[in-house]
Every structure is written in C-alpha cells, then in structure tokens.
Design brief:
- Catalyzes the methylation of 5-hydroxyuridine (ho5U) to form 5-methoxyuridine (mo5U) at position 34 in tRNAs.
- This is tRNA 5-hydroxyuridine methyltransferase.
- Its EC number is 2.1.1.-.
- It is an enzyme of class 2 (transferase).
- The protein has one domain (about 5-215): Vaccinia Virus protein VP39 (Rossmann fold, 3-Layer(aba) Sandwich), CATH 3.40.50.
- It has a 7-stranded mixed beta sheet with strand order 3-2-1-4-5-7-6, with helices on both faces.
- By secondary structure, it is of the alpha/beta class.
- The protein has helices at about 5-15, 20-35, 40-55, 70-75, 90-100, 115-120, 140-150, 180-195; strands at about 60, 80-85, 110-115, 125-130, 150-160, 195-200, 210-215.
- The termini are far apart.
- The protein is built from 8 helices and 7 strands.
C-alpha cells in the first residue's frame, strides 16, 4: 500500500483500468522482478490523458529508468511526438535502449546520459510537458531550468511528491529519508506559491503534482 489513499480504493481503480499487453506488460514484469520503480497504473493512465488533452508533441523527462514512461508518452503523442529523457544509471540506460529499440521508437526518443542538473542547464528549445521522476531530493534543484525550458501554457508534472505518505505526516517518516522529505516539502511549497505556476496536487500513485505555466503577459 502506498499510504496515499485507501488500499481498497487503489485496488478498485487499478482493476478498472485495462491491463497492458505486449512490450508494456513485459516492462511491468521486468520492473517488478528487478525492483525498478515505474509509474503506477493509475498514474500512467493520467499521463496518457493529459498528454493527449494538451496536444503535447515535445516532452522532457527527468528519470528514464527502463523507458516505461518515456514510451507511454510516445504512445500518447503519436508518431510525430518526441521525448528527451535523462538518466544517469548505466544499467537502466542499457535496458531503456533495449526497450526503445523493441518499440521501434529510436526516432522519437532522445536518451541523454548524465546528471540531470548538469544536462538541464545546456538544453535548448521549449517543451509542452516536463515530467520530473528523478532523484526526489533534487526537484528544487531542477525547477529553475525546467521552468526556463517549459513553454508558456505548458505542464510540469512531478511524480512521487507525497513519497509513501511521509511528506504529509511525520508519523510515517523513516529517519534515513528525513532529508528527502524536507526537500520535497520545500519543493511543494515552492511550486504551490510560485508566481509562474498554477499547481494542483493529486493523491494517486505515490502523489502527483500538476503545474500549469502561466502564459506570458
């Protein structure tokens, strides 16, 4: 259980949603067997709907892992959509490249290896959607560059922002996670009060924040 919502509600929603097939199902099995975190089923469904709703064609992702969410975005955008995704773990990059190849998505996915904070500083262009799913304690470090890269009217999506419920109550905080919890709380305060953003926090999966970048005056 995620501690974000009641277990019976979580189970009911996941049972309602159709099961993945083919490569996506294979990736889910791989993630479970190798303890690789991927987006929860209900979060994947929301990402699909949001991507289609805003007509996104350019996505930036921080935290590729095995490219599960990268390929979700590709599917939602269609063949004329493109995603730039950043990952620093070599083992994850190897598996991500295999999955991207299996999906025949090499032309849609640009996979950049390295530290996201460094890479973000040198990226150019603008993105319709930016998905933060990397190191939880670094979201604040990424924010300034992400806002620079996000187009006005674009959507910043931040995953795991309630972090097993620990962000909402000290009763659940594990001592070794205290620094991450404090940094994530600071991040949430920042995006909720930021003059460029309108933010909604949604208690699904491990917690999701949706931040709309206001149109420039």
């Amino acid at each position: 259980m995620s501690n974000i919502t009641n277990e019976f509600v979580e189970s009911y929603i996941r049972e309602l949603l159709p099961e993945e097939e083919g490569l996506f199902r294979d990736m889910e099995i791989y993630a479970e067997e190798h303890h690789v975190p991927i987006v929860h089923k209900e979060v994947a469904a929301l990402l699909h709907v949001l991507t289609k709703s805003v007509g996104a064609k350019k996505v930036l992702e921080v935290g590729t892992a095995i490219a599960y969410s990268s390929l979700l975005f590709c599917r939602a955008m269609g063949h004329d959509g493109h995603i730039t995704t950043i990952e620093r773990n070599e083992d994850m990059i190897h598996q991500a490249k295999l999955n991207i190849k299996k999906a025949s998505a090499e032309e849609q996915v640009r996979l950049l290896q390295g530290d996201a904070e460094e890479i973000l500083r040198f990226l150019q262009g603008s993105y319709d959607v930016i998905f933060l799913d990397g190191a939880k304690g670094q979201y604040n470090d990424f924010l300034s560059d992400c806002l620079h890269l996000l187009k006005p009217g674009g959507l910043l999506i931040s995953d795991n922002i309630l972090y097993k419920g620990m962000i909402a109550t000290d009763d659940l905080v594990v001592r070794r996670k205290r620094t991450i919890v404090n940094r994530m709380r600071s991040y949430l305060e920042t995006i909720c009060d930021h003059p460029q953003l309108e933010t909604s926090i949604i208690p699904i999966g491990d917690g999701l924040a949706l931040s709309y970048k206001r149109q420039e005056e």
